[in-house]
Amino acid sequence: MAKFLRLRAQADAVLEECLLKQKEAEEVRLRETDSANRIQCFYRGCKGRRKARTRLFAVYELQRFYRGWRDRVMVAKIAEERKQQIELAYFNSAATVTQKLFRGYRSRKYVHSFYARKEYLAQVLQRNEDMRRELQLYAEQQMAEEARIETERLEAERQKLACKLHHLLSTRSARGVFNG
Do 165 and 159 meet the contact criterion of CB atoms below 8 Å apart? Predict the structure, then answer.
């Protein structure tokens, strides 16, 4: 019991010390609360920023995937259109060549037949030769006519000249035995 009494005597000192410690703890508690709040605020801010950054990177990743997919689809569409254009150009050129060959065949077979053309050219050559002969004959007739006209003109001129020079003849001689 002695112990208890000793402890009882110290109880007031312990109580005072306890109150003092409690008062000091209360003063420190506000600072510690502020510090804890700041630490928690900083931690939550870091955590929130990390979460926002993670979400932002996730958004970037989704955008990257979407844009990649969209561009691949667009490139595939462009490639398909280009392929169709090339095929269309090829088929158009093939159709053009086919049409050209068929038109040539049809033209040679039905429109401009080789044998009909050969016959036509033979007729043209024959008409040409006939025309040349007729023109040659006509030219010869013209030359003969011009020569005849020139001869008549010269004869008429000679007659005219002879009439003018009749006084130069002294006498007319009759045919005789010796000039005969």
Answer: no
Compare 173 and 101 and report the one with higher pLDDT. Answer: 101
Structure tokens at 66: 């979407």
Chain centroid to Cα 28, Å, comes to 85
Query: What is the separation, in whole angstroms, between the first and last Cα of the chain?
Result: 223
**Per-residue model confidence (pLDDT) at position 102:** 94
Decide if pLDDT at 180 tops 80.
no
How does pLDDT run across 102-138, given as a tens digit for each residue?
998 888 788 777 787 889 999 999 999 999 999 999 9
Q: Encode burial over 64-100: b for 16+ CB neighbours within 10 A, e otherwise.
A: eeeeeeeeeeeeeeeeeeeeeeeeeeeeeeeeeeeee
* Residue 176: C-alpha distances to residues 90, 149, 180 (Å): 111, 37, 6
Structure tokens at 100: 């050209």
What is the residue whose two structure tokens read 């955590």? 47
* pTM score of the predicted model: 0.39
String of b and e for 14-44 (b: at least 16 CB within 10 Å)?
A: eeeeeeeeeeeeeeeeeeeeeeeeeeeeeee
Report which DSSP code applies to 107. Answer: I
